[in-house]
Amino acid sequence: MVKQTIQIFARVKPPVRKHQQGIYSIDEDEKLIPSLEIILPRDLADGFVNNKRESYKFKFQRIFDQDANQETIFENIAKPVAGSVLAGYNGTIFAYGQTGSGKTFTITGGAERYSDRGIIPRTLSYIFEQLQKDSSRMYTTHISYLEIYNECGYDLLDPRHEASSLDDLPKVTILEDPDQNIHLKNLTLHQATTEEEALNLLFLGDTNRMIAEVINFSLKEPGSATVRHRVAKTGVGEAKYINLSLHYLEQVIIALSEKHRSHIPYRNSMMTSVLRDSLGGNCMTTMIATLSLEKRNLDESISTCRFAQRVALIKNEAILNEEIDPRLVIKRLQKEIQELKDELAMVTGEQRTEALTEAELFQLEKLITSFLEDQDPESRLEVGADMRKVQHCFHHLKKLLNDKKILGNNTVSSESKDQDCQEPLKEEEYRKLRDILKQRDNEISILSEVRTNQRGRHVA
Ligand SMILES: Nc1ncnc2c1ncn2[C@@H]1O[C@H](COP(=O)(O)OP(=O)(O)OP(=O)(O)O)[C@@H](O)[C@H]1O
């Protein structure tokens, strides 16, 4: 289990016009925790001189200023979350900020240049690249795309519908099981085997979302989830409409950041129910506060930063997901049944007569080899309760022993030859050899004498 608070990052959007830029500064070196200071001029606060604070300071894990590009954002914010997801944890990245502050740009990306692509396409590329590298395991990837608008969920990837408005899309509802796990009814899961397939799904969802233009939305992908929200503004400097989902999200964040609060009102809204694990639960969660620090937006930027400071207090406990694969369980149980049958056959004296297969023989011989090579005197040769296997082991060992004997003899004779060459002969051996030589000499001279006599006789 990994205990971690929600990581908070800030990203400052470049101003549309330079002269509209508000005053702010980023201190990167403040005891290694960077801080962002926003200066709110008195006259701007309420239109007349008052007692409002001028300087507001907020701490973030890291603050990315206007010049930070999409690659930097991905590398520093999304890649670590994607890494955790690949390691088996749940991961969530969400952007939070006022309208026009760069949530879409950060999460999805800009459409103008390839280099402007955002966190989702880059994360998909990265995940598929990593999965391809790992041939030791089997992975399956599924994508779903959920939009929440006014407390209703809509499936943006439903293949049966051509949406011209949100109501054309199937409604997704929340079901809670007895263990309080949340299930999303009607949300389709689509398998993506390649990066291209995953991107096509993303584009389909984006298209459906754009067609069904909404005020508030959220999106969630299994494994890595992203939520975005929007506060619609009707006039400069005024937040006119904070929708219900956002209000409940804030309630949950407040409850979670307060000590000793036992009840967290997740159930009040669909978004907080869906994000239950991401907020204070089993997940590695990261929030990006998107800030538009133009003079007219300073108020809202300050409230975004305040929200982020509360989020930073939320502690999550991410647990490694280890689901039991039923296919593996069946395989294990089949093996266990076979072993029990073998044992029973041995105990009851009932012998199995069919011959061992090539694969079984190969496996057995491999076992014997590693048993013989094992230096541990306690090591055991485990072949199960199958007499055919036990018999085969004996035969194989016998064969190995005979082979070794033959080899052993050859080795001894060749070794002794080597010895002849290398070591000086001992006196005793020398004497014996001299005697043998003498004997051979005698034999040769006797033989040659016999031959000479025979030849003489022929000549005579
Ligand atoms: N870091 C950035 N660099 C360059 N342009 C940016 C950046 N962030 C945002 N923009 C541009 O600013 C505009 C508004 O950004 P975006 O649509 O991402 O905001 P938003 O927070 O998603 O807004 P809304 O809540 O209204 O959907 C877009 O034209 C976008 O391309």
UniProtKB/TrEMBL annotation:
Gene3D superfamilies (alphabetical): Kinesin motor domain
Keywords: ATP-binding, Cytoplasm, Cytoskeleton, Motor protein, Nucleotide-binding
Record-linked PANTHER family: CENTROMERE PROTEIN E (PTHR47968), KINESIN MOTOR DOMAIN-CONTAINING PROTEIN (PTHR47968:SF67)
Residue ranges constituting the Kinesin motor domain according to the UniProt record: 5-314
Main localization (coarse): cytoplasm
GO BP, sorted A to Z: microtubule-based movement
Residues binding ATP: 97-104
Family (UniProt): Belongs to the TRAFAC class myosin-kinesin ATPase superfamily. Kinesin family.
Cellular-component GO terms for this entry: cytoskeleton
Superkingdom, natural source: Eukaryota
Presence of keyword Metal-binding: no
Subcellular location: Cytoplasm, Cytoskeleton
Coiled coil residues, start to end: none
Name this protein carries in UniProt: Kinesin motor domain-containing protein
GO molecular function annotation: ATP binding; microtubule binding; microtubule motor activity
